[in-house]
Amino acid sequence: xxxxxxxLIITAGGRPGYLKELLNGVIKYLPETTTxxxxxxxxxxxxxxxPQKAIWKQTEPDTxxxxxxxxxxxxxxxxxxxxxxDDFEITTDTRATVIRMVNFLDTYPYIDVVAGTVxxxxxxxxxxxxEGEYIRExxxxxxxxxxxxxxxxxxxxxxxxxxxRDVPWDERIGPIxxxxxxxxxxxxxxxxxxxxxPGLNIYEQPKDRSMEDESYRARRHRALNGHILMLAKRxxxxxxxxxxxx
Length: 246
Description:
The protein is an alpha/beta fold.
């Protein structure tokens, strides 16, 4: 099966070693997809071996993650978009997984997003919002279905491109942190259908500090800033993760 209808959204910055390995995997296993890289560090496209169908967008330093994702969506001209992190590992199993994702969206026109897992860690379920108090994650209850409707999942999913245009990431939230639950709550409010299905997994590359630079670690340390902005936007005091009690 060809994946010509799929574009890859890759937001990058501060992890050039991981990005190089990711792009090499795309060249080998997903060559017919369109690869869109939005990068905000000092490594331009000449540092990398780009796939044949690649679009490189260089932005100003320290661009918010939400802004980079929306910029990528603006550049897509395919039917579907696959959201990736720049440290994912692309293998022959990844190709099989993406083909399954495309088949789900082709088969079920009511589905807007089909999500998987990262490193086989389950992070999918529903979101409860208690006005003025908290947002709480509830773990999905598994009962051997092949498709589950969920409110939230990991940032490894295939979406209809038109849906990402209808429900963009909120660019007021940043530099990172908080955008994840916020976007899924926006999707829920827009009555979009997100599903999770077992067996759609991708692995991260082995952790190696030499693959990233100090700028990346510094920006990760500011993740709390984004979470604070998200809580203020939602008018709640706390975000309660899976397994945590209010």
